Amino acid sequence: MSKKNDIEQALLKGGELPKALLKQEEDLSKAAKVQGLAVFTADCSKARNLSALLRAFAKAVDYPVFFGKDIDSLLDCLKETLAEQKQGYLLLVHEIHSGDPDLKEDVNLVLEVLHEAAMYAPKVGKTIAYLVNHVGKHRPPEPGRGPQGYTDVE
């Protein structure tokens, strides 16, 4: 089976996509658009707590400012975003610091919600596929400087 067919099949299936597709993100995005899926990218690189992770997802899907600050709000966000799409969507999760001891529990909660949302999608005739780029700990802050916050501009 070709790489293109592998990508198409993975997207049709929905849910968490194989880590091997991280190197084919551009092809994956193109294939998603061909299948009528919207493509969203959640940049979690600066998230150091659950609240920041939730903001990264809300920002990715352009969810309203009044977004709640708990894990149930993320599920609502993902389901409402799905309702706005014809076919569903692909969510690319960039640099989630699952190797950071302070975030490990929060990352696991987020992954559970992503799975739950993906399992809900077929019930309404749509697809949610997601690809997670796990990375280790955050780099320690430079001496004399605090860690860069999620909203800080470089």
Automatic annotation (TrEMBL):
Short name of any one Pfam family annotated for the protein: Barstar
InterPro entries listed in its UniProt record: Barstar, Barstar-like_sf
Stretches assigned to the Barstar (barnase inhibitor) domain: 38-124
Family affiliation: Belongs to the barstar family.
Protein's UniProt name: Barstar family protein
Organism whose genome encodes this protein: Pelistega suis
